[in-house]
Write a structure and sequence with these properties.
The protein is built from 12 helices and 14 strands. It is an alpha/beta fold and 362 residues long. It has a 7-stranded parallel beta sheet with strand order 3-2-1-4-5-6-7, sandwiched between helices. It is globular.
Length: 362
């Protein structure tokens, strides 16, 4: 049987973690899987799926500005590198098809990983990429380019509910849905809720993620907030390649990364959560059925949009990074107004059907 390649983008951890249910479903169906990634994604897969074949496949890395309002400047400066990476990925896949006997490609937001000789699927919720301010004038051009990228793939897998607004609103819901677009429902590395235990070990759990330098900036702000206490706090740094646990004070511990089962346990034993509103985080929180304070990355249009559409959701409290620095830790304690017994649509059958269609092609 030919193999399935699963290769997520290396921009934060979210693209890798949302591939976990895809990989696990394929495994249950008997597929032979090859994983590919670079940086933190490689290290995450190395630990999470140590039994699977794993190869390094470098991709383009965006580095955000420390000042959010100038976010698009490094993005524009990085366009030549993005185009170069696109062609590098496409050339690499030609060799990988033969070397690893590939029969299907699943690419999470890596636009160059396709080939006319074998079928492929692109996993993305970014059907309509968001631009803000002056840059919004470029939206039609960006839409044209992304549609050209999408056209290279046989299927587009969207990790959201089919009915609008779902979790991602306009990001994942075009006005007209082509026949090769498949809504798989939210994809999370977690499979069960993480209810808060009666006597949590920690007052706060802060989950840091995303590209630099904003990952480090967010971490430093949190350290300053919680270093002196009085709340017992753990910060998960989003660094799966590191092993160093740092005890900053009697109140504050920094952990580089936790395996998914240990992360689930930590969430259960933490009274309050703080995180970025990355889309994969929103999907995780939907499954975990936990409230959280969400702090959008400054100047990142997608996170600002996701935060805005969930602003009235009782599951979340939205705080800007600027506001975060002016508040005291007790301001992050949320009232228990979220009904965690809400029954959400079960979309697992759609992921299984998508994976079953792959098995038939191998």
């Amino acid at each position: 049987m030919k193999k399935v390649l699963v290769a997520p983008l290396n921009w934060g951890m979210g693209h890798a973690t949302r591939c976990v249910p895809i990989i696990e479903t394929l495994e249950k169906l008997g597929a032979d899987i090859v994983l590919a990634g670079d940086g933190p994604v490689y290290h995450y897969f190395e630990k999470r799926f140590s039994h699977l074949e794993l190869i390094r496949l470098p991709g383009h890395v965006v580095k955000y500005q420390s000042q959010g309002r100038w976010l698009m400047i490094p993005v524009l400066k990085g366009l030549p590198g993005f185009i170069h990476s696109f062609f590098n990925e496409h050339n690499a896949i030609k060799l990988l098809i033969t070397k690893y006997n590939l029969g299907f490609i699943i690419s999470d937001n890596r636009y160059g990983l396709w080939h006319r000789e074998i079928p492929s699927a692109l996993v993305t919720h970014q059907i309509n990429i968001r631009l803000n301010g002056f840059w919004k004038t470029g939206t039609p051009f960006v839409k044209l380019v992304t549609n050209l990228f999408f056209s290279n793939f046989d299927e587009i897998w969207i990790p959201d509910y089919a009915s609008y607004p779902g979790l991602a609103g306009r990001l994942s819901h075009p006005r007209k849905t082509p026949s090769n677009y498949k809504y798989l429902g939210p994809l999370s590395r977690f499979t069960s809720p993480a209810p808060k235990v009666a006597h949590p070990d920690y007052d706060f759990l802060a989950i840091v993620s995303g590209p630099e330098p904003q990952r480090t900036i967010f971490e430093k702000i949190l350290v300053k907030l919680f270093h002196a206490g009085p709340f017992k706090t753990v910060i998960i740094r989003g660094l799966p390649g590191s092993r160093e646990i740092i005890h900053k004070s009697p109140y504050l511990t920094l952990i580089p990364h936790l395996p998914d089962e240990e992360m689930h346990h930590m969430i259960c034993h933490s009274a309050h959560l703080i995180s970025r509103p990355g889309y994969s985080t929103l999907m995780d929180l939907r499954v975990l059925q936990r409230q959280a304070v969400l702090v959008p990355t400054p100047g990142q249009p997608e996170q600002e949009y996701l935060a805005d559409i969930h602003r009235n959701n009782p599951q979340f409290r939205i705080i800007s990074q600027e506001e975060l620095q002016t508040l005291q830790p007790e301001n992050f304690i949320l009232p228990d107004t979220f009904n965690n017994e809400i029954i959400f649509p079960d979309y697992s059958i759609y992921l299984k059907e998508a994976c079953q269609s792959i098995i038939k092609l191998l």
